[in-house]
Design goal:
- The protein is an alpha+beta fold and 533 residues long.
- The chain has 3 domains: 164 residues, no CATH class; 134 residues, Immunoglobulin-like (Sandwich), CATH 2.60.40; 142 residues, no CATH class.
- Helices cover 20% and strands 30% of the residues.
- The strands form 5 sheets. Strands 5, 15, 19, 20, 21, 22, 23, 24, 25, 26 and 27 form an 11-stranded antiparallel beta sheet that branches.
- A hairpin with a 4-residue loop joins strand 16 and strand 17.
- The radius of gyration is 32 Å and the shape is flat.
């Protein structure tokens, strides 16, 4: 679908034709319409008063500026370029849409645009956010509402008002960006003081584009473990979209967003002229104070001219422990811990009925088991469970009863609807999450594998393999390794244990990885009791 659609039934909203070129347009006339002025006011009020004030949700204030900008920018661009044709006005709309889409889809485009803004204004930031493209249809609204007014003459005596509107509308040229919140005066152009514990400063003689990337909202870190080797444990897959800044000489930006509270902080600093660098520090490691940029301070990360080389360097003279080289997912160490595939996990659908009879069992090529409970005209799969098929303890004709226990599922064979278990029983436990099932006669222990080095997987998740120890009754303690089945038989009944997935997670990117969304144990196992009561 095109970004702009022009209904054929409306002369004011149709695609430009040769006949349309005859009538000259006056785009500056649109700047005097209530619709354009209201959009400009909404943009200014939203950017300078509502954003960050907590009056409205951040999502709403962010999108409001995008919609208002799409209304304001095309007419403003047409007026500044002295466009007088409908084809030229169409191209102005197209240019605004193209730039807006580019800076919300590409970090490189955002950096270029930020650099252009830095040449004519204070440092600007651009947050690359593809969801902002929802505002593009407002370009069609801009054409439909404002284009008709451009065919009217500009009233006498309105030129001063027109000039004022053009000056105020200069902010719209940034297209969905917001200037830093620090106050500036002509006397302090060399540095913009920031309140931060860690900051990035440009001490070169040229403007420098800096991109800051922070972990996804779905990423969880075990700060104590990650602090052992942040460069090895953190990978690019963990970090989200970049926030681009153009820093004039001497200017600085806080590394972490204001108001963010975490046990530790990780920020990826990128730029076209200096090496990608990871910043990692524990909360409270550096004092949060006002930095004026007069000299490198504790927590200061400095971008400077590289000595004897082309390009720039990045360093922290007072806090070198802040800086790390980021892990490369393609360069796993030789002693890295083996990866456990998410596709091998346990899975099951809801078993919502109290007591059901198995009418059919089908094992698929993926190892998942489908059960038909026989109460539909056609054979319908009523319950799926993905587990080692050889351990499935039930047969066609058996009555079963299921019970959900938190992250666990207990399914047992019964004599019939509403009845107790049979003398020869079968009981299935499916367990997934951070805890193990509670069995009446068996205790478990968790043992981490420290003979390998944890390293990020393709999602950026870092984990250490674990095994289990199991003690049943008077039987000797046994070890259950990943992918193995352990049988504990006391002569009266048999307990089969199978460890499907076992990890101790150090870092979790739940936007990509399956399993629990928190750090710590990630254990999936099957327990099957069979025998006599």
């Amino acid at each position: 679908m095109s970004l702009l659609t022009w209904p054929a039934s409306s002369a004011s909203a149709s695609a430009p034709t040769a006949a349309d070129e005859v009538a000259a347009l006056r785009p500056e006339r649109a700047l005097l319409t209530p619709a354009w002025i209201a959009s400009l006011a909404a943009l200014g009020i939203n950017d300078h008063l509502l954003k960050g004030a907590g009056v409205l949700p951040d999502l709403l204030t962010g999108k409001l500026s995008d919609f208002a900008g799409m209304m304001v920018a095309p007419a403003l661009l047409a007026a500044l370029t002295r466009t007088s044709s409908r084809r030229g006005l169409f191209l102005c709309h197209l240019a605004v849409g193209a730039v807006f889409a580019a800076i919300n889809l590409s970090h490189e485009a955002a950096s270029i645009w930020s650099g252009l803004m830095g040449m004519v204004a204070f440092p600007w930031k651009i947050t690359v956010d593809p969801t902002d493209l929802v505002a593009l249809p407002a370009l069609a609204l801009s054409w439909r509402v404002l284009a008709p007014s451009m065919s009217k003459p500009v009233p006498r005596g309105s030129l001063r008002a027109l000039e004022g509107s053009l000056a105020c509308a200069g902010v719209c040229l940034s297209v969905a960006t917001s200037p830093p919140e620090e106050d500036w005066t002509d006397d302090d152009w060399w540095s913009n003081p920031v309140s931060a514990d860690v900051y990035v400063q440009n001490v070169t003689n040229e403007d420098v584009v800096v991109r800051l990337r922070r972990p996804h909202a779905d990423a969880e870190l075990d700060c104590f473990e990650v602090a052992v080797d942040p460069g090895r444990y953190l990978s690019e897959a963990v970090f989200g979209e970049a926030e681009a800044w153009t820093l004039a000489p001497g200017n600085m930006v806080a590394a972490e967003q204001e108001g963010i509270v975490r046990d530790c902080h990780a920020v990826l600093v990128e730029g076209d002229a200096f090496p990608q660098t990871l910043l990692f520090w524990q909360n409270g490691a550096y004092p949060e104070v006002w930095h004026d940029g007069a000299a490198a301070e504790e927590g200061g990360v400095i971008i400077s001219e590289a000595e004897g080389e082309e390009g720039l360097s990045i360093d922290s003279p007072k806090s070198p422990e802040l800086l790390f080289a980021l892990a490369d997912l393609e360069d796993r160490p030789a002693d890295a811990c083996a990866l456990q595939e998410d596709g091998d996990r346990l899975a099951w659908t809801s078993l919502t009925r109290d007591d059901v009879q198995i009418a059919g069992i089908d094992v698929g090529p993926d190892g998942c088991i489908g059960l038909d409970f026989g109460d539909a005209p056609d054979a319908v799969t009523d319950w799926y469970v993905c587990m080692p098929p050889a351990l499935f303890p039930f047969q066609v004709g058996d009555w079963i009863r299921g019970e959900v226990l938190g992250q666990h599922l207990n399914v047992r064979k019964i004599a019939g609807p509403g009845q107790e278990p049979l003398v020869d029983f079968a009981e299935l436990y499916l367990s997934a999450g951070e805890s193990l099932p509670v069995l009446v006669d068996t205790t478990f222990g968790v043992r981490g594998e420290f003979g390998c080095e944890p390293a990020p997987d393709a999602c950026g998740t870092v984990a250490r393999p674990i095994s289990l120890t199991a003690k049943r009754g008077q039987l000797a303690t046994a070890t259950l390794e990943l992918g193995q089945t352990l049988t504990l038989d006391d002569g009266d009944s048999k307990l089969d244990l199978h460890l499907v997935h076992g990890e101790e997670r150090i870092l979790v990117n739940s936007a990509c990885s399956e399993g629990p969304s928190w750090t710590g144990n990630d254990i999936e196992m099957v327990a099957v009791y069979t025998g006599a009561l």
